[in-house]
Amino acid sequence: MSGLSRRRRYLVLAVCCLSLFIVGLDSTIVNVALPSIGRELHASVSGLQWTIDAYLLVLASLLMLGGSTADRLGRARVFKFGLALFTAASLACSLAPTIGWLIFFRALQGAAGAMLNPVAMSIIRNTFEDPRERAQAIGIWGAVVGISIALGPVLGGVLVGLSWRAVFLVNIPIGLVAIALTARFVPESRAPRPRRPDPVGQVLVILMLASLTSAIIEGPSLGWGSLWIIALAATAGVSGVTLVRYELQRVDPLIELRFFTSRPFSAAAVIAVAAFAAFGGFLFLNTLYLQEVRGLSPLSAGLCTLPMAAMTMLCSPIAGRVVGARGVRGPLVVGGLGLGLGSLMLVSLGADTSLWWVLAAYTVFGLGFGAVNPPITNTAVSGMPPSQAGVAAAVATTSRQVGLTLGVAVAGAVATAGLNGSLHDHLAGASHPAWWLIAAIGAAIVALGLAASTGAAQASAARTAARLLEPQAA
Fold it and tell me: Are residues 154 and 240 in the same domain?
């Protein structure tokens, strides 16, 4: 993509960010619509969890395949197809007659999203050849991740006032505009040495994530000791071990495990899972709390999350600049502290808790989430060869989506396990263990942030980058 003018490069960045915006938006915009969906489609709590996680699970499972396929077949081509499928699946979601069909169409949205996120990052990585300009572009990208996810509940609250189906219809005009802009401004590109398909690895990834998520979501209702839950947990464990052993033997693995010999990259992946699990669980529980316990309308519930969205939008670009000037340690520590403190403020949450206190907790949590996202993005892709940009970006993005998936599943399971009655009467008290758990995640992020920014960690990143370049030089 060399030779593009500065204006053209930033137009390409804008198109990529537009696709990211709708994918990130759909990770959270549906949360505010859950009570309305549950009432109209007669869905249980587990059905509502699957409405969120069907999208996130398929997205997480196929991201690495999407990145490597685009490197092989053409990034702009796969990107346009993903936009078209995402737009069509959004229309189908808006017309879903039952919860089962809605979950199925959400899965289709996830498959389409897997063709967008890693591919867009790969396009950005190969469009911006100057390291300084590329860092700025990646910083903008990281900010859009947090902004889109944080704005979802606010926009969802506005749209659910019309109908829960409107939260899906909003994607259609955005998708159509993005398709037209991609065809006009985004040039085609491929990796110099595309990676070979890895169907066995892909099946193992799907088995591992699907069985683990299913066990967590269905465990409270079926019983943690039931044969079905034990079988699902065993499938997840066996699939995970088999995946690692198989991928280590492949020349072109679906998951490039050599990335994880870099301590900063490994820490970024774990922090991404942890931070987005905290966010997914936090948002899922608070959406139900605001509407089912406090009786707020969808619009009012969405507006209550505005402090969290505002702090995310404010802190993300600031954190990106701090990362560029001073490194990742400060933003990661501030991010972990914010996530942990915001959750600790809710460990005694009740139906009569002051709304101002709840909003203060959302503000602190939003500060943490806004601070933690840009350093994840920066750490994950720095030092990776351009030819592996699609796969490297997919690993980082997959970590985020896996975190969101597990966050919704775990928070819902923890709260449901302590739920002895209706959501209105018992959800607030049943959620207390979940807030303690999310607070512990915040503390873990602080520890990982400190460990990932030492001199020894940076040395391991340099060694990893050298090893990744060795096959190309041979």
Answer: no
pLDDT tens by residue, 150-199 = 778 888 888 888 889 999 998 899 889 989 998 888 888 777 666 677 88
Best CA proximity match to 280, nearest among 63, 85, 34: 34
Q: Domain of 169? A: 6-187+250-466
Same domain for 262 and 361, yes or no, is yes
Closest-CA residue to 45 (of 348, 284, 231): 284
Is residue 47 domain-shared with residue 176, that is, in the same domain? yes
- Tokens 């009569």 correspond to what residue? 352
**What distance, in Å, lies between the first and last C-alpha atoms of the chain?**
24
Question: For the domain that residue 437 is a member of, what is the CATH number?
Answer: 1.20.1250.20
Q: Note whether residue 254 is domain-resident.
A: yes
pLDDT in tens, 18-55: 888 888 788 778 888 888 898 899 988 888 888 988 88
Question: Residue 243: inside a domain, yes or no?
Answer: yes
Do both 279 and 228 map to the same domain? no
Question: Is the domain of 354 the same as that of 460?
Answer: yes
Whether 317 and 413 share a structural domain? yes
Instruction: Please answer whether residues 379 and 262 qualify as being in contact, where contact means their C-beta atoms are separated by less than 8 angstroms.
Output: no
Q: Are residues 275 and 335 in the same domain?
A: yes
Determine, yes or no, domain membership for 473.
no
Q: Write down the mean pLDDT value for the chain.
A: 83
Tell whether 194 is covered by a domain: no
pLDDT band at 341 (very low <50, low <70, confident <90, very high): very high
Task: Note the pLDDT tens digit of each residue in 279-317.
Answer: 989 988 888 889 888 888 888 888 888 898 888 878 877
Please tell me whether residues 236 and 302 are part of one structural domain.
Answer: no
